[in-house]
User: Fold this.
Amino acid sequence: MPNRRIRARASLRVAVLAAAVAVLGGAAPAPDKTDPLADQKAFQASFGERFPQVPFADFANGPYAVSAPMRKQWEDIMQFPPYDFALDEGKTAFETPFANGKSYADCFANKGIGVRQDFPYFDTKTGEVATLDGTINRCREANGEKPLPYQVGLMASITAYMAETSRDKPFDIKIPDDPRARAAYEDGKEYFYTRRGQLNFSCASCHVGAAGQRLRGDILAPAIGILAAFPIYRSDWGSMGTIDRRFTSCSAQMRSEPLPPQDKSYRDLEYFLSYMSNGVPISGPGTRP
Amino acid sequence: MTKAVTRAIFHGGIAAVLLALLGTASVQVFAQGTAPSAGQAVAFDRTKGNCLACHTMRGSDVPSNVGPELNDMKARFPDRADLIAILQNEEARNPQTIMPSFGRNLILDHQEIEQIVDFLYSL
Assistant:
């Protein structure tokens, strides 16, 4: 009930803003045609201005890019990376054939080695965004295996291994000239900026507006490059977690109802965030306090 | 970071000493309104104010700086109504703020907001 009121007010605010932008006119791009590339340029430039001391590629390192004390802690942890066990488990799983003799390598370009930076992509066959995690499960199902749970466990281990083979390759997300791809991008963008829940936070409240600031013990990661390190080992969790785990836990933190893993909106959100991060190198798997 | 913590601990120390010095007088003050400790409990409760997520203040265990440090509140906000308004709906003052509109969004009720303001005035 109060939520609806808030949403109405928020959309009113958006309308007022839109009107203001329209009045200002001039420099603003045509309002009826979205321009993802212009969005990306503006997004990257704004983080560059906010954090002039951070080299662009370093946004792959989340909170460590913007906090020297955290970075020091990180360098200590990395003497014995806590995700090593997951890498071993993931590599073994990746290389073990399915019961039918096929393997993950058969489902990916370049046999799945060094491809993390191309995900998520817009699949023109299904008309939807395909994530790395979703593609792993589709591969399993196509070969008669049960899908894996999305947030923890083997899914995190396999994506950890696949990320590791892709380290330093820059995000290279494409938005094909297809209205459905544009719509998916727009949906992800809207999800990112919409305030929701009783606390009326948007993802941007914390990862754009307050990026680099301290929220209790945490330094809020800047939104640019925010998925480059996934999956991550978080000491707070005591285990590995995938992008779905992070999305659902941030949704809960916002006191809004988390969506099911791989929900269309979460996939579109991943598409938007990854596209905004084009050029930032893959750094996963990562480790966080 | 450690500076803020030591400062907070230091403030805490002073307050404890002051309380001890004030002795019975403070009990009378508390008895009139709501006890500041009730306000602190609501302010620190993660399911209520959760103020420490964003603000450093006396009693913080870890420093946060999403919002400004809360100290010296009587000097900075002599008008009680201003603090009530901030807690009721900070978005009215700053539409872009990340600070939740505690009253408007029914996160805190009127009495809890009054209790927190009592607590803020002890900072």
